[in-house]
Specification:
eight-stranded parallel barrel, TIM Barrel, 11 strands, globular, Non-ribosomal Peptide Synthetase Peptidyl Carrier Protein, Chain A
Length: 329
């Protein structure tokens, strides 16, 4: 049984990665329905939280059906991160996660996210402050290092464990790689097999099939896998991996009726959470992913992303289901 603090996650948990503009409550809802064991909010700016910015505050929304769930924070100033940690702690998540892995320019070039991989003492100090104020487990997500010459995650793992984090998720790329090339899990495996390390180690990067998940588990011995892009438009991946791990066989692939059903659930949760207009707008980024692989889908997609009517959206989704009922994806 893998545990983070007192949170029991099963024998080999599958985690939904925090993804900006993706892993909001509606998306988390469908991933939970299809097997995600632990989920995180989108990453939240510490500066936004302490300044009471509406967008950052809204990201604190969590629901009972999502548990266990972590709130993920990022920032470059230790005092601001400490204050944001206090605010996040009051929102009563199951854990608080710190982002030391985001590679995008407007985060890393401001000294947050993966930038902290260039300043390990500051990373350790920042983490220690949040561990002190939190009334729940603190975890970290990071990368292998800043670039190929500074793959310092083995040192990071030991030092962060020593100051009290209770799990570590590692993306198998450096910051300079962004999301290009193949993820390298070698160092992730070395950390997991380091006799000094006793906290759960979760691997992340390029797991898009049940076979790949089993390969990473068997080869590197990680305690679980964090899945990000592989779940976008395809929440079934969690249950598919679990079934394959248990039986060595594949679940039937989702047919068009399954895709439309989950897309509707996602839309309904989006409207419920953000209101009709905003919920419809925020759902638009997901249609291409739900219906990836359908031939001649462009016209349907254009209608889905331009209508402001909830009723019309339901009608369009019904049309998609009827039109593609006989097509294997």
């Amino acid at each position: 049984m893998i545990k983070i603090g007192s949170i029991e996650l099963g024998d080999f948990p599958l985690l939904l990665a925090p993804m900006e503009d993706v892993s909001d409550p509606p998306f988390r809802y469908v991933c939970k329905q299809y097997g995600a064991d632990l989920m995180y909010t989108e990453f939240i700016s510490s500066e936004g939280l302490i300044r009471d910015a509406a967008k950052s505050i809204k990201k604190l929304d969590i629901f009972e059906y999502e548990r266990p769930i972590g709130i993920q924070l990022f920032g470059s100033d230790i005092d601001s991160m400490r204050e944001a940690g206090i605010i996040a702690d009051r929102a009563n998540p199951d854990l608080i996660d710190i982002n030391y892995g985001c590679p995008v320019k407007n985060v890393a070039c401001k000294g947050a996210g993966a930038a902290l991989l260039q300043n390990i003492p500051k990373m350790v100090q920042m983490t220690a402050e949040i561990v002190k104020i939190a009334n729940r487990p603190v975890t970290v997500k990071t990368r292998l290092g800043w670039d190929d010459n500074t793959k310092n995650v083995p040192e990071v793992a030991e030092r962060l464990q020593d100051i009290g984090i209770q799990a570590l998720s590692i993306h198998g790329r450096t910051r300079s790689q962004m999301y290009k090339g193949e993820a390298d899990w070698t160092l992730i495996g070395e950390i997991k097999n380091n006799p000094r390390i006793h906290i759960p180690i979760f691997g992340n990067g390029d797991v898009g099939t049940p076979e790949k998940a089993k390969e990473m588990k068997d080869r590197y011995g990680v305690d679980g896998i964090m899945i990000g892009r592989g779940s976008i438009g395809y929440p079934w991946i969690f249950n598919e991996i679990k079934h394959f791990m248990k039986t060595g066989t594949h679940l039937p692939l989702p047919v068009i009726a399954d895709r439309v059903k989950v897309c509707r659930q996602h839309l309904d949760k989006s409207v419920e959470w953000k209101g009709v207009r905003q919920g419809i707008i925020e759902m638009r980024r997901h249609y291409t992913n739900y219906f990836k692989g359908l031939p001649n889908f462009r016209d349907h997609r254009m209608k889905l992303v331009t209508t402001d009517s909830y009723e019309e959206l339901l009608s369009l989704l019904s049309d998609v289901e009827k039109m593609y009922a006989e097509i294997e994806i």
